[in-house]
Amino acid sequence: MLTIVVGGFFGDEGKGKIVAYLGLTDKPYIAVRCGAINAGHTIVYNGRTWKLRAIPSAFINKDTRLRIAPGALIRLDVLYKEIRETGVHDRLLLDYNTGVIEERHVEIERRDAILSGKIGSTLQGVGAAMADRVLRRLRLACDIPELKKMVTDVALEVNEALDKGFNVLIEGTQGTFLSLYHGTYPYVTSRDTTASGFASEVGIGPRRVDEVIVVFKAYVTRVGAGPLENELSEEETIRRGWVEKATVTGRLRRVAPFNIDLARRAVLLNSASQAAITKLDVLYPEARGVREWDKLPREARKWVEEIEGAIKTPITLIGTGPEATHIIDRRRELGFTR
Ligand code: GTP
Ligand code: IMP
Ligand code: MG
């Protein structure tokens, strides 16, 4: 079974935590990370925290084969640092075609007034490297001698694993409204961040996708410039306890209440079959660490059900804390196999 996890707002919805949980429970044979190193995914497990920009968040399942998509972009120093931090050298491979960001890409972005000023880019060189890729001058993993033993054909491995009936988990990055095609252009990132975009980054056709899980947070956050409806003032954000700092850049995230219209459109753009909502414990502190639907406070259940009705999509996974296991998994009771 093939599952794709994507962000439903502007990124940082908690995809890392959801993917880490699915890694533990669904035991994927292969987990593939898409996107690039501008996206930081936070994983908290057994009290330890990792902030990963290249390695699949499902690494906490020690039996899962870890792969980086052909459409993804890495930086060698970031890759090696994360391999050391996670100890996954014996089960991590990149695709031959994974793109490699170089220092000059970072320099190009730092000098670019539109990216650093108007857009509020993370300035990690991702857009500049994508531009080089389009112009067919970007170096790929297969061009780097030191990666020789670390490359494989990810599309072939994933398709063969699916032929054998194994679970495969694809980890998207950022959020639907940062999509180059479907987002709030020009305030977007340099790739398509919808489920179709990530399927394409891996080398999977639309007919092979079984489940698309769109991840929302209990409120909306956005880093960098661009429209954010009903944005809260900094004082109001602090008063509500919704303050967040960006994983890669350390900037304060802009904040707004949950947005039903955006959520509906994210479901549409991704053909989502399920939704996840993280950080319910931030809205309802009594929900912290709860793992069963019936044990949630009544108001919290009502809030989730109202959103579920409005987006016409089952909310199968509910985050109740930062730990990978702080989740209510309603998939079975809602009729999903896994
Ligand atoms: P991008 O690909 O960069 O968009 O990141 P992401 O979607 O993986 O999210 P990121 O890890 O950057 O930010 C989510 C934050 O919320 C992290 O600090 C997580 O530890 C935290 N988090 C995730 N789920 C929950 C939850 O259910 N409750 C609480 N309290 N924190 C959560
Ligand atoms: P860039 O893709 O780094 O050039 O950034 C373009 C826009 O996307 C900026 O507004 C960034 O803040 C935003 N962005 C890029 N990656 C992420 C992410 O992982 N989480 C949240 N916002 C991101
Ligand atoms: Mg993030």
Report on this structure.
- By secondary structure, the chain is of the alpha/beta class.
- It contains 11 helices and 16 strands.
- Strands 9-7-5-2-10-1-11-14-15-16 form a 10-stranded mixed β-sheet, sandwiched between helices. The chain has a two-stranded antiparallel ribbon with strand order 3-4.
- β3 (41-45) and β4 (48-52) form a beta hairpin.
- α3 crosses α5.
- The longest helix has 14 residues, at 298-311.
What are the salient characteristics of this protein?
338 residues, alpha/beta, ten-stranded mixed β-sheet, 16 strands, 20% strand, binds guanosine-5'-triphosphate, binds inosinic acid, binds magnesium ion
Number of β-strand runs: 16
Share of β-strand residues:
15-25%
Helix content: 25-40%
List SSEs in N-to-C order: EHEEEEEHEEHHHEHEHEEHEHEHHEE
Apparent shape: globular
- Whole-number radius of gyration? 19 Å
Number of helices: 11
Task: Report the major sheet.
Answer: 10 strands, mixed
Q: How far do the termini sit from each other?
A: 8 Å
List cofactors, ions and other ligands.
guanosine-5'-triphosphate, inosinic acid, magnesium ion
- Main β-sheet, spatial strand arrangement: 9-7-5-2-10-1-11-14-15-16
Which segments are poorly predicted (pLDDT under 50) over 5 or more consecutive residues?
none
By secondary-structure content and strand pairing, the structural class works out as: alpha/beta
Mean pLDDT, all residues: 97
